[in-house]
Design a protein that fits this description.
Number of strands: 39
Number of helices: 20
Shape: globular
Strand content: 25-35%
CATH superfamily of the largest domain: Glycosidases
Structural class: alpha/beta
Largest sheet: 8 strands, parallel, barrel
Helix content: 25-40%
Distance between the termini: 57 Å
Number of domains: 4
């Protein structure tokens, strides 16, 4: 009996261990997919040779008559250069048709070769960009699921006092009339007929809008003409059925052939620039019904007005929208952004997560928010369910002569929603091309703004024979740069962010074509950065419901708590957001409106938003003073660095009122110093970057408590103790930084 009980106990224990292993394996099999909170000692044990999951990775194109021998040679070269991961895309001229059985069998061999070298793999989800055309499959096989838009199909002249009577095309959805002064009015449609009499005193132009299949241009490896054009349409991003079809012909096929490596050698799928770069308005067959469901009114009478506005980047738009029409315009883009996120980004993110993968993607022109809000709707909505949100820096957005804070968009989404990493696609089409020194500068600009996963463009397959690595990858200092990047990526992925200031992104105001809100937002980014205040960018959705409200705090899913919210002169905010901000302030949180308070408070719609009153914001700090505009990054490098920003004394005074102290205090101002603050278990971490061309020598205060200050050097792998004194209970240090150099400081 005793032996039987012992045997039963052993069996039960073994079964329990198996179950525990299965449960734990299902919950946390891949630490890099989750926030980690190690001690400095635990980080120190791994930082010299971090796991290959922390990159960096080259963007590898399987172009030309690529063979397995070519792939082996290229992977060996990458490994020699210091790469331990690779992003792989089907290229032009492959011997196997894209998405064919032969292609997937070859891809499986490529993955096996990467695994043999302990290299991780990201799969680019299409044979070009933007994501979502499946190598031309939507045009060839699924034409009904192609992207659609609303455009002006007819323009008709009607003299003053004259009448127009016409039969409409079956696809017509809306009509409007505009006079020579740009004043416009919708024209009601009655079935397929239009009857309208022009008002006296002015000639009019009647615009008739219809829905048509239109696509953002695609650069496809399967395009026979080797050009970026509209021959291969992307899918209807707002239609979940189209995305399901996309997943079926791409992602599911990869799963069939290499799914056994998902979450192991294969880290995830990488998307590229899905957007509506089309004339007119984004549209899908379900749009009008969904709009009525969300907004409670019929948008169709107004779509002809909205399809011919400055927001669509027409150089000489016919129509000047009235304030009411601008609010209707915002309603349209609010619904569009919701449908784009739900129809494309969310299904892809959920599919990847269900298959033990991560989804990483970046949008188009993140550095130009006015354009982004009209072609992608909302950065935050699109990225909400993306596990590795990203940006790109591929032409000249980041250089010593530009001001570029937009990488914080990606890191802020990661911070708010508890994602451990944010990525960059860098260098693809830079003018001029960077060398190793400039590449380091560009990446440091991104690291200090929270990006911590680096993809470098471009490494083409050597299918035509061996040749030196492309561009700066062939320079002598490149392997050392890769060592630096890999260690920095690991260090900046550990722990959690610690920004306590939130800067509001006024996307809804931009839907109203409010360029002033955009200008003030960019200038506020610069204000905070140049005064050493670490901050996150937050959306209306985050402030209205996603952040966890505490007593005078908003907490992110990553664990950092905002104690200050700064709003850069939005034209409109929602009533839900207003209520939460008011409660936040009542608990001791600080709210600052830069440049003035909103004019409108919205509820279900922007169209019926109410007029704001001074009492709505009596609890907040308000400064009517304006910041000097921050220039948009240039298309080509200018001859001189950016001019200093003019900061009115009233704004600085207000900033000091609402921000208890900067992340790093300087005894004398220096706008070249940029900062990022994180926490490990029992330690505070500061990344400092001197963006300026002159040495930086300052007495500085780290608002941290500890008994040891160390400088970790990601390039050499050395750790040095840093002398310090205590000032008012905080850490006082002497900073001596060469131009364009970084300091990684750990306080325990």
């Amino acid at each position: 009996m005793k032996k039987q009980k012992t045997l039963a106990l052993i069996v039960a224990t073994c079964l329990a261990q198996v179950c525990l292993t299965q449960v734990c394996g299902a919950q946390t099999p891949r630490p890099w997919q989750h926030l980690q909170f190690p001690t400095a000692q635990q980080v120190q044990a791994k930082w010299l040779r971090p796991s290959s999951v922390y990159g960096p990775e080259p963007y590898y194109g399987l172009n030309g008559p690529v063979t397995l021998k070519v792939v082996e040679r290229d992977l060996d070269t990458m490994h020699r250069l210091g790469f331990r991961a690779v992003t792989i895309q089907a290229g032009r001229g492959m011997p196997y048709p894209y998405l064919s059985t032969q292609y997937f069998k070859f891809f499986r061999q490529v993955v096996q070769q990467a695994k043999k070298r302990n290299m991780r793999v990201w799969i680019v989800d299409d044979a070009g960009y933007p994501s979502g055309f499946a190598g031309g499959a939507f045009t060839r096989k699924m034409p009904s699921l192609r992207m659609q838009g609303i455009e002006i199909a007819q323009t008709l002249h009607v003299a003053a006092g004259k009448s127009l009577h016409i039969t409409l095309d079956p696809d017509a959805v809306s009509a409007a009339a505009v006079n020579s002064n740009g004043q416009a009015t919708p024209i009601p449609l009655h079935g397929r007929t239009l009857h309208w009499t022009a008002h006296a005193g002015s000639d009019w132009t009647v615009l008739i809008a219809d829905h048509e299949f239109r696509t953002a241009p695609t650069r496809s490896a399967t395009n026979p003409h080797n050009v970026k054009d509209t021959e291969q349409s992307v899918e209807d991003y707002m239609n979940p059925a189209a995305t399901a079809a996309y997943i079926r012909v791409t992602h599911e096929q990869y799963k069939k052939y290499v799914g056994n490596e998902f979450g192991k050698s294969i880290m995830g799928f990488r998307g590229d620039e899905p957007d509506y770069s089309i004339a007119g308005l984004p549209w899908t067959p379900a749009f009008f019904a969904r709009f009525r469901q969300l907004k409670g009114y019929d948008i169709r009478p107004y779509t002809a007005l909205l399809a011919e506005t400055p927001s669509r980047r027409h150089p000489t738009p016919l129509i000047h929208l009235t304030p009411l029409q601008q609010r209707i315009h915002a309603d349209y883009y609010d619904v569009f952004s919701r449908m784009f996120a739900a129809g494309f980004f969310t299904p892809l993110g959920e599919w990847c997560k269900a298959n033990h993968l991560q989804y990483q993607v970046h949008l188009n022109h993140e550095e130009r928010e006015m354009e982004l809000t009209h072609s992608e709707g909302s950065f935050f909505r699109d990225m909400r369910h993306v596990e590795v949100p990203g940006i790109d820096a591929i032409w000249h957005q980041i250089w010593t002569d530009t001001i570029s804070n937009y990488p914080r968009l990606a890191s802020s989404v990661a911070h708010i929603y508890g994602k451990p990493r944010a990525f960059t696609e860098s260098f693809a089409a830079y003018t001029p091309r960077p060398d190793v020194t400039m590449a380091r500068y560009i990446l440091n600009e991104e690291f200090v703004r929270g990006v911590n996963l680096v993809e470098m463009m471009y490494f083409p397959a050597t299918s035509r024979g061996p040749h030196p690595p492309f561009g700066f990858m062939g320079q002598p200092g490149f392997p050392a740069l890769n060592t630096y990047v890999r260690r920095m990526s690991y260090l900046m992925s550990m722990g959690r962010p610690d920004a306590c200031v939130a800067l509001f992104l006024p996307s809804s105001s931009m839907w109203m074509d409010d360029s002033n809100a955009n200008t003030t937002f960019m200038s506020a980014e610069r204000l905070l950065s140049e005064h050493q205040v670490d901050f996150d960018i937050v959306s209306e959705g985050a402030l209205a419901h996603d952040l966890i409200a505490g007593h005078g705090t908003f907490q992110t899913a990553s664990g950092n708590r905002y104690r200050t919210v700064i709003l850069p002169h939005p034209q409109v905010i929602s009533s839900a957001m207003l209520a939460r901000l008011k409660a936040f302030a009542a608990g001791g949180g600080k709210v600052l409106f830069l440049g003035g308070t909103p004019d409108l408070i919205s509820a279900r719609t922007y169209r019926f938003a109410r007029t704001a009153t001074p009492s709505d914001f009596s609890w907040a700090t308000v400064t009517p003073a304006q910041l000097s505009p921050t220039p948009v990054p240039p298309q080509f490098p200018p001859s001189s660095p950016p001019s200093p920003q003019v900061v009115p004394a009233a704004i600085l005074q207000s900033l000091h009122q609402v921000v208890a102290h900067p992340t790093v205090g300087l005894e004398r101002p220096d706008r070249a110093l940029k900062v990022m603050h994180r926490r490990w278990k029992g330690a505070e971490v500061y990344l400092l970057f001197n963006e300026g061309s002159a040495p930086l020598d300052r007495e500085a205060t780290l608002f941290a408590r500890g008994n040891k200050v160390e400088v970790w050097n990601p390039q050499t792998g050395q750790i040095h103790t840093m002398p310090f004194t205590r000032r008012n209970g905080h850490i006082a240090i002497s900073l001596h930084m060469q131009p364009y150099s970084t300091r990684f400081i750990v306080v325990e």
